[in-house]
Amino acid sequence: MSAINVGIIGVSGYTGLELVKMLHQHPKFELAYVANSEGGTTLAELHPSLARVCDLPVSKADAKEASRHCELIFLALPHKTAMAFVKPLLELGCRVVDLSADYRLPLELYEKHYTKHTDKENLPHAVYGLPELFRKEIASAALVANPGCFPTSAILGAYPFISKRIAQTPIIIDAKTGVSGAGKKLSDTTHFVHVNDNLFAYNPLAHRHAPEIAHYLGIEDQDVVFVPHLCPVTRGMISSIYMQIDEDVDAKTMLKMFYEHEPFIRIVDSPVEMKNVAGTNFCDIFVKQQGKTLFISSAIDNLERGASSQALVNANIMMHLPEESGVPTLAYVP
Amino acid sequence: MSAINVGIIGVSGYTGLELVKMLHQHPKFELAYVANSEGGTTLAELHPSLARVCDLPVSKADAKEASRHCELIFLALPHKTAMAFVKPLLELGCRVVDLSADYRLPLELYEKHYTKHTDKENLPHAVYGLPELFRKEIASAALVANPGCFPTSAILGAYPFISKRIAQTPIIIDAKTGVSGAGKKLSDTTHFVHVNDNLFAYNPLAHRHAPEIAHYLGIEDQDVVFVPHLCPVTRGMISSIYMQIDEDVDAKTMLKMFYEHEPFIRIVDSPVEMKNVAGTNFCDIFVKQQGKTLFISSAIDNLERGASSQALVNANIMMHLPEESGVPTLAYVP
Amino acid sequence: MSAINVGIIGVSGYTGLELVKMLHQHPKFELAYVANSEGGTTLAELHPSLARVCDLPVSKADAKEASRHCELIFLALPHKTAMAFVKPLLELGCRVVDLSADYRLPLELYEKHYTKHTDKENLPHAVYGLPELFRKEIASAALVANPGCFPTSAILGAYPFISKRIAQTPIIIDAKTGVSGAGKKLSDTTHFVHVNDNLFAYNPLAHRHAPEIAHYLGIEDQDVVFVPHLCPVTRGMISSIYMQIDEDVDAKTMLKMFYEHEPFIRIVDSPVEMKNVAGTNFCDIFVKQQGKTLFISSAIDNLERGASSQALVNANIMMHLPEESGVPTLAYVP
Amino acid sequence: MSAINVGIIGVSGYTGLELVKMLHQHPKFELAYVANSEGGTTLAELHPSLARVCDLPVSKADAKEASRHCELIFLALPHKTAMAFVKPLLELGCRVVDLSADYRLPLELYEKHYTKHTDKENLPHAVYGLPELFRKEIASAALVANPGCFPTSAILGAYPFISKRIAQTPIIIDAKTGVSGAGKKLSDTTHFVHVNDNLFAYNPLAHRHAPEIAHYLGIEDQDVVFVPHLCPVTRGMISSIYMQIDEDVDAKTMLKMFYEHEPFIRIVDSPVEMKNVAGTNFCDIFVKQQGKTLFISSAIDNLERGASSQALVNANIMMHLPEESGVPTLAYVP
Question: Residue C2's pLDDT is what?
């Protein structure tokens, strides 16, 4: 079987870099096109660590040009910018994995929490790229909306128990994230002096990922209580989830059975640690009960399982390749 | 008014060092005795940063010797070790602020969660040293049991709302702590390589501070759901608290009124940050509501408000000095 | 003796904050005026950790207004901005401690490394504010040029040995600094993700502090080999200095004698550590010899001894107060 | 070509883990034997991040058993322990890459700086495993002594210029290392609270790696001035090297030519950064001149190029495989 040409639009950021690193070593995908908003540079100029490893020229992003080189395009762009590329790419016959928020939510929810949607035509046909829940739909999708990092860790942790939840009790999600989730953009909350030896909640009860979590858990918005915290860590994310469930459930057994055949879920006996999943596509999950209260701790790498490596898994599924092809499993430990 | 002689037993650890730093600059207390388990050294040998600042000789701990020099003794010792000193010190007429867990709980609870108690005589007379709740009792106490760090941040955050709590709903306390809380002792979980760029829960739903929290909130053990997390931070602690309360409560006003005259509580409008209280006795509290769910974020310095500076406030109260005397308020920022 | 009114122009940055923290507790100075470039705010809005501690209104910087309230002004401004204030302040009879680079160098050197100087009148009368070398001149100065952080640590380490240096051999200064030295300004090199778990040299052999070091050591520019490195630390600076000296010198004795009566120099027996001086005005110095090569390790807090606390010492000297008044000596340890 | 069986003795530590991670994905080597001092466990029990990735049973180390399964053994053991295995392994026909210090130095030097040597027979035949200098000798060696991390970064930086060095001038090596270099062992200097926000020199002018550096640079011990510093970083090492050389040398051109055909050396135009080589076998080198003084900055990952990945390169060369087989080049960035 010959190589499948793929491309990345939005290669300057952290998720773009992660995609390059994985695609460079992928057994079947050939990285045939990389672009950012300005072009006229190379991968190693943008990311010095790629020198002598993968130094392709970087083009100014152009849908037509992309479609000429590639069967599938990864969009690693901010929301709103992404939808302007999805439309022409699909028209030109490319398949798309979109890492932005643009196609994750139904129209009404999206416009309430983000902005006006400019591609109402394709929005209803996008598939939410959480393989454990939508593997079959992903396989035949033209457009996959890659989940947000917080929803990935929260949904993977809570979903197996949702049927046992006591009605109308809230699901508390106290999330902790590394700073790379905020991207390369400079801001007061990414300044080293502000973050180092510090920790704080941000957008408590008001983060845009909360409706995405509620929607895919199939519960009401107001039943998701979501508070993210910024931690002095580069990459990694833990969602500590508290649910009220039927007391007679054996949570650990239930969890193990639910994910029995999943290659990228590990049910662990000790509380999960950020570092054990850093650099990989794994989601590690730990569960413990106290009466009706369930404590679930779910860890991912926000840039991998929360973005780029999950995008790659989706692309593998779309192209009928083995799901694990080129997907990283060796953690950045120690 | 002349100086009041005080002493510290257990001066080798972090909380001992913090006490030295504060007492060295205190306007009324004179540090007349410092001891550890071995003696034969000096403060600057134990803590090089004290060179040329406060370099007293360190004695081998001895109750009689301590009582000869001091009216009040701070015990910065592990639990179980502390009670062996409390008994003779009280007999010799010293007043005591005990930073260990030995006198925080009623006998039955203590023996269930710690070990056999060897000073049943004094245990019932100890006063729990949380000034906002027990100021009057502290003033006349011979023995003050200084609260644990987690209970301090959790109780200060939750207590004002406890009367509005919906019956039988759990109080979720998702706590984040710096590594200094684990003390100077070497262990796998304090190794830099393990902690750096990492984060994890430990003793989830099984930490010994949970019954202390429940007891002083006046609720059932099983209604406190307590999960501490270790963070790559030296000092600082945030308790993220989730409670179900009457929807018609105006939480922020209620909180402000409750702590209106408290010198060391700050109600803040943005989510609390660890660094803003580092090095100080402040407890910063933020609150926000979503339907019946209350989110409270309560920040302290685990070594100060969670141990040493709170001990100093208790000593000030016991000696009828102004509560703020020598208590640090200037944060380690930036 | 009544209070002496002082003010700070440039109160938004880190060094401004440090000055506020020290002046707030100073036994003789009264903080009577604080300003930044825009005004219309308060200290606690700029620096939330100051809430309930020191919440003065912040004015729009104005020399006349400042001189009306104060006898002495601290300028915590960028170079070039500072000299525009020095001139009118001196005319209005204020004494000035300038934390910028504007008056540290002779005209020719300054204009070569910085920019055109607009206050040639006052430049020759400024005194370099390194108390160990210029205490007497500082006492009677109207204008003190507060040294840079790198020069402070390098000069204090190297100066005692300069007379024993082997002619024409270079002095190697390999400096390591925390990120707060770069200020609050956002830049790629202060982004948490760039700095965390990283370390690198910057401006090697081309940093503007090199000529300042050479000038006050009294040696040729080309004989100072200066390479600063950025480290994942908030505050702290170590200069590792390598010199060629006469082999028969007993370096440690020489060092101890040189600084025998200095209150803020500590000669230590083990290699210096950043944390032992963090938050203080101390300069810790360690020295060791290998043949003709001398290794000196000199540690300061870049924001304190490298800026604000040294400025306060200078102000104390200028006002004939005890040099240690209100100067911090208790380190941010642990 | 069929697989080549290899094994690791000493699999509990950081360098053992790194070897497992690389060998698990190696195209030709098959990891057929892993052992530590006690056995009776599995890789995932020792290193939880290996769960579901590579979970071999771990044996109690035994030379005979090892030789039965493997053609080549990696020894990731402390010095002194290693030589006890080298002898029997060589006798049993295994080839060995020894990551300890035991075979790096001539007898006299070794016994002076370490301990009595118990395998004088094999010591003279060991080849020093720095491929850029000894590629040919490695190819036919039965025993390769893998270089220390400090010597690797220092020698690779300084060697190209050694012929231009001005006689009898010292080479200053100011090294900065991450904490993983100290291993998993608990000690005061690996405690998070001690290291975080700190930095300090250790064993200045007295580190055991200094004679190794001098020996392979071919200069006198006293001409190497070596001071390592511990930094709050998990992995990474930078050697800042200062040499006196002929002024008419064009250092950058000389450096580029020297390493022209080397796959794992990158000559860079901006100062090297630890993170750009983290997780890889690259050594990044930057050079700049000021008169006769040369500043060289050389960065490696202390666990990879400073230990495990360099060991793998040596094994590849010994087995006549392509040098780059299975050797990591994608950095842990961001």
Answer: 86
- Given an 8 Å threshold on Cβ–Cβ distance, is D332 in contact with A276? no
- D208 shares a domain with D132: no
The residues near A302 (Cβ < 8 Å, ≥ 6 apart) are A149, A177, A178, A180, A181, A235, A236, A237
Residues C94 and C186 in one domain: no
Q: Residue C59's CB: how many other CB atoms inside 10 A? A: 20
Residues of D in contact with A24 (CB under 8 A): 330
Specify the number of domains making up chain A. 2
C-chain residues within 8 Å CB-CB of A278? none
Binding-site residues on chain A for chain B (CB distance < 8 A):
170, 172, 174, 176, 178, 193-194, 197-202, 204-205, 222, 225, 227, 229, 231-236, 238, 240, 242, 244, 271-275, 278, 286, 288-293, 295, 297, 334
Q: Residue B1 pLDDT more than 70? A: no
**Same domain membership, residue A314 and residue A294:** no
Which residues, 6 or more positions from D133, have their beta carbon under 8 angstroms from its beta carbon? D155, D159, D216
User: Average pLDDT, whole number, for chain C?
Assistant: 97
Q: Cβ–Cβ of B234/C17 closer than 8 Å? A: no
* C325 within some domain: no
Q: Which residue is associated with the tokens 């009595």?
A: D116
D57 upstream amide cis, omega within 30 of 0: no
ipTM at complex level: 0.97
Query: Hey, how many other C-beta atoms are within 10 angstroms of the C-beta on C1?
Result: 6
Distance (Å) of CA C197 to CA A197, B18, C194: 14, 29, 8
Q: What is the dihedral of CA D115, D118, D124, D126, to 10 degrees?
A: -90
Per residue in A181-213, pLDDT (tens digit) is 999 999 999 999 999 999 999 999 999 999 999
> Do residues A36 and A141 both lie within one domain?
yes
D187 and B186: CB-CB below 8 Å?
yes
Domain harbouring C212, CATH code: 3.30.360.10
pTM of the model: 0.98
Has A149 been annotated as catalytic?
yes
Asked whether D23 and D312 are in contact (CB, 8 A), the reply is yes
Instruction: Give the distance from CA A317 to its chain's centroid.
Output: 15
Tell which residue, B136, B231, C59, has the closest CA to residue A236.
B231
- Secondary structure of C252-278 as H, E, C letters: HHHHHHHCCCCCCEEECCCCCEHHHCC
Chains touching B (3+ CB pairs < 8 Å): A, C, D
The token pair at C141 is 């100065």
Residues D71 and D155 in one domain: no
In a domain, A324, yes or no: no
Q: What is the 3-state secondary structure (H, E, C) of D223-255?
A: HEEEEEEECCCCCCEEEEEEEEECCCCCHHHHH
pLDDT for position B164: 97
CB contact under 8 A, D192 and B232: yes
CATH number, residue D125: 3.40.50.720
The answer to whether position B190 is within a domain reads yes
Element (H, E) at B285: strand B283-290
pLDDT at A1: 60
Overall size of chain D counted in residues: 334
Residues in chain D with CB shorter than 8 Å from the CB of A275 are: 49
Nearest CA in chain B to C279: B332
| Type of residue numbered C314 | N
Distance between CA B17 and CA B99 in Å, rounded?
A: 13
pLDDT digits (tens, 9 = 90+) for B147-168: 999 999 999 999 999 999 999 9
The proportion of chain A whose per-residue pLDDT surpasses 70, expressed as a percent, equals 100
Structural domain boundaries, residue C33: 4-146+307-318
User: Beta partners for A225?
Assistant: A172
Same domain, B39 and B27: yes
For A180-200, letters b (16+ CB in 10 Å) and e give bbbbbeeeeebbbbbbbbbbb
Would you say residue B324 lies in a domain? Answer: no
